[in-house]
Write a structure and sequence with these properties.
Helix content is 36%, strand content 13%. It is of the alpha/beta class. It folds into two domains: 222 residues, D-Maltodextrin-Binding Protein, domain 2 (3-Layer(aba) Sandwich), CATH 3.40.190.10; 206 residues, 3-Layer(aba) Sandwich (D-Maltodextrin-Binding Protein, domain 2), CATH 3.40.190.10. Strands 4-3-5-17-8 form a five-stranded mixed β-sheet. A three-stranded antiparallel β-sheet has the order 15-10-16. Strands 12-13-19 form a three-stranded mixed β-sheet, with helices on one face. A hairpin with a 6-residue loop joins β1 and β2. α7 runs parallel beside α9. The radius of gyration is 22 Å and the shape is globular. The N and C termini lie far apart (48 Å).
């Protein structure tokens, strides 16, 4: 088996586990699915806690033709639970490759038909379908409950806002925490770092005292979100008026680059990604101490279950610590990797029904309590916490750490309409894995990003917008 095949199998395994975690059954309800169309009908008792109640009709979900909803397999549970809560609703859903969605919208625009009423995708994908050429998303503002947007974490809802318009609602946020190997940290007598400077010094100590142990990964697109985003490196700062500020020579970028090069040279920061077989083996062999990564790594990657990727048993191996602070600054900002959103088509014939569905799935504890990812809607977080607290994998109160870190997700990292992550992988990660230092190649990223921004309709601005 080639390394590439191994990587694909591991990634497929993780995606399958996520889907399984988000599609468990609901007792005392009968649900039927048309095998051809995916239309679901339900019989059951309406739940007493159905989330917020959108404005408009008393029963906006009652329509005479199916609402066309495009999702991925883990979000099937959102549809089935919605229909169990609102049995008179009429929804037809389809599993799609959302990466192809922006191109499909152009085809639908040319044909004058075909748009899904509701689309589930990452904010970056929805942003590519929101420019003048695609013009897909509906402004949800007139259809949402009063004040509901204020219930979302600022860093979560920010990619969905365009001035006064609300173009989507976030389903979940994937902000970072610092995962740590609790038994090994105790065995070696180490204390958890609280700043990035302490993190670097910790890596230097580990390299000297316990060579071979890792404190993180710098081997795929996640490195940009994990290290540069929390530093507020101006990779893509939007001004809200169509402009973007890019300056990779800023000291908030160079300090990350210098730290990464130091830790990579010491051998404590891996040059392969977290799903690479070599990195997985390091975790499974307990040859790791720290790992800054998204909050969903706990449930879907570390796991502590028989089918887990990193750990197959839960024995208090893993703890979570708060995001790290850059010394001299006031806020320990964190980045994110993942977290998707729901958008409604401006072409829909049933905007009230579509908005009701989108608001319910993003705010109701009925779905958010079993959805898996950390809710972007803050009042739904306690429902999510109930599943996490029961996992014996955790060595500390992971729920409190993840919940408090949600307020630290930096809202100023713009969701742009171009592939900045793929460009980062091609121009930085690839060369670093081939022997270059990060410092030698990170600056090469700026001009391609500036060109991509202009090609996608952004104006390059010379002054950084207020953050």
């Amino acid at each position: 088996m080639t390394i590439r095949a191994s990587r694909l199998i591991i990634v497929a395994l993780v995606l399958a586990l996520v889907a399984a975690a988000c599609s468990g059954g609901v007792a005392e309800t009968t649900t039927t699915v048309d095998e051809v169309t995916g239309t679901t009908s339900s019989e059951g008792t309406q739940a007493t806690d159905s989330g917020s109640e959108p404005s408009g009709s008393d029963q906006p979900w009652v329509i005479d033709e199916p609402l066309k909803v495009w999702i991925d397999p883990p979000r099937e549970k959102a549809v089935t639970l919605y229909l169990e809560t609102f049995p008179d609703a009429n929804i037809e859903y389809e599993f799609v490759d959302r990466g192809e969605f922006p191109a499909q919208v152009l085809l639908f625009n040319a044909a004058g038909e075909g748009w899904p009423d509701v689309m589930f995708a990452e904010p970056e994908i929805l942003a590519r379908a929101a420019d003048e050429q695609h013009d897909y998303p509906l402004d949800l503002t007139p259809y949402l409950s009063d004040g509901v947007v204020d219930g979302f974490y600022p860093g979560g809802i920010a990619p969905c806002l365009d001035g006064d318009r609300v173009l989507c609602l976030r389903n979940d946020i994937a902000h970072m925490v610092v995962w740590y190997n609790a038994p090994k940290m105790a065995e070696f007598g180490y204390e958890l770092p609280t700043t990035w400077q302490e993190y670097e010094a910790f890596g230097e100590q580990v390299a000297a005292d316990h060579p071979g142990f890792l404190i993180g990964a710098f081997g795929d697109e996640q490195a940009l979100d994990t290290y540069y985003w929390p530093s507020r490196c101006p990779v893509q700062v939007l001004d809200g008026e169509g402009g973007v500020f890019i300056d990779l020579a800023d000291q908030r970028c160079t300090r990350v680059t210098e730290m990464a090069d130091n830790l990579i040279e010491l051998g404590v920061l891996s040059k392969v990604g977290p799903f690479d077989p070599a990195f997985v083996e390091k975790i499974q062999n307990d040859e790791w101490l720290l790992f800054p990564a998204a909050n969903w790594y706990g449930e879907f990657v570390f796991q502590g279950r028989e089918d887990g990727l990193y750990y197959q048993t839960g024995e208090g191996q893993v703890g979570a610590a708060p995001p790290l602070l850059w010394e001299g600054e006031d806020v320990a900002w964190t980045g994110a990797r993942g977290g998707a959103a729901w958008a409604v088509s401006q072409h829909t014939g049933h905007p009230e029904a579509a908005a009701h569905f989108v608001e319910w799935v993003t705010t109701s504890p009925i779905f958010q309590g079993v959805a898996g990812g950390y809710p972007a809607y803050a009042p739904a977080a306690p429902a999510w916490a109930g599943n996490i607290n029961d996992n014996p994998l955790y060595a500390n109160d992971v729920v409190s750490v993840v919940t408090e870190a949600a307020d630290l997700l930096d809202p100023s990292w713009g969701s742009v309409r171009y592939d900045y992550l793929g460009t980062f992988v091609d121009l930085v990660i690839g060369p670093v894995q081939s022997g270059s230092t990060v410092a030698e190649v990170f600056g090469d990223l700026e001009e391609p990003l500036r060109s991509l921004a202009e090609l996608n309709g952004y104006a390059l601005i010379d002054s950084e917008p207020a953050r």
